[in-house]
Amino acid sequence: MSSFNLPAKCNIEKHLSANITCLLNTMGFWGLLGGLVGAMIVHSTFVIAYRLFFSPLEKFPGPKLAAATAWYETFFDLWNNNFPDVLAEMHAKYGPIVRVNPWELSINDAEYYNEVYVTAGKRRTNFDARPRSGLGMQGECQYTFMEGKKLNAFSRTDAISITADYDTHEMRRKAVANFFSRQNVTRVESRIHDNVRMLDAKLCDLRGTGTAVALNHAFSAFTGDLVGQHKSLYGVLRMVPLLRNLGWISQLLKLIPVSLLTALNLKVAGFRMFKLIGEGQIDKIKAEVANETKNSGFEEKQSVFHDILRSDLPPSEKDSARLKREAFALLAAGTITTASTLALITYYILANPRIEERLREEPKDVTAGFPEEVPRWADLEKLPYLQGCIKEGLRIGRFFRRNTCIAPDIELQYKQWTIPKNTPVGMSICFLHMAPEVYPEPYKFKPERWVGNYDPLMNRNFVPFTKGSRNCLGMNLAWSELYVYIRTLFRPSGHKMTLVGTDESDMALIHDSDVGVPKRDSKGLNVRFD
Fold it and tell me: CATH homologous superfamily for 170-529?
């Protein structure tokens, strides 16, 4: 048997250089460029023809342009950042199932939600991570797809939330599940209480000064302290659509000093700084775990990353590159989403004196001991009107991005449609939360809709943290933060607050950055403490 030996790297480079030189001498620069352009046109023509006429998804309804190219979605995402509105129009025109791009289907039917977002016990579920490929949560090894056929596996350095492969996701999630459990969040609730006291004291200092406070920024600091012990960079949300669609920009940003980015564009700099915060946390925690002893104060140095580093996960899962991406993902999710919801709830309460009065009048003994005793989550969730305020904030918060799940082992059946294996299928939370047949006057903040006997379909459609094996890891922490802070801020003897120059247009979430984002010239949530 003859053997075939590849030439050494230097020989390959010589052959390649010689071939390119030969082509340039034969065809000339413009001839070579024209040939490359022609080859790209031919390739694109074949790809588009396949997608339109031979793809397993060609029978599904939807715009032909969307089926031909993902640039259809990218255009709306970048031009006006309103693709969810375009998707709603697509469903209105084509029906409950739509081919939203060359490889993905969107379904708008609340009754089918539990068939897409299933528990691990029902079936294996992979995840389509492409929509987040440029957001800094995914490793260098990216996905390459041809209509659902995975040509390249998953990156070993992905954050848990975007780990595509089912088995790897389960392994990573189990390692941190205890940290995010309700039992553990309740056990460390005193850390939340400390942050609430600190923020309340700062707000008390502003009483009677006439100073207007940007509470949306204060909330970012509040929730950021809980997850990463750092002030968040709220403006980073404006960068999400760009990086989500043009992932190569994320790689380019790594080459540019933060100081230069700050001079050019604060939002871009904020994105880099947000990542550096997470990276700094990982370096610090790895050093702590490496040097810790049995008497090093375990409770004072507990975090999700301490748990990962102390776990029996393989060394590759404790690699700095993966943990730094995990830190970025958790810092972003734990800061921005909760802070955005807190700001929205606070605005609607202050904008409606009737709501504020009723909320403050709920049983007063729960907060009677503040600040020495901060009300506990378990007690607060028994207050029906407070619960209604928080649920309305989560419902109306417009979590736009559709998490696309993949069934790798079986075909899914939706009505008369058979969905091929390995097809990404997404359902927009926004569509479920704004369904007028379930929530009358869906765009109005009405906490009373959750009080007393109400339509059970409201619970069916209420999925702010999604469901199934891929639901939000930090939902217990988020619930606890929302309950404790809103009740503390609106306790019977609490601050008297007045909105300053803020109206509903400043708070309305109209742009899609995974979470909803207000208009670009929003003044934010400005409040005076009287």
Answer: Cytochrome P450 (1.10.630.10)
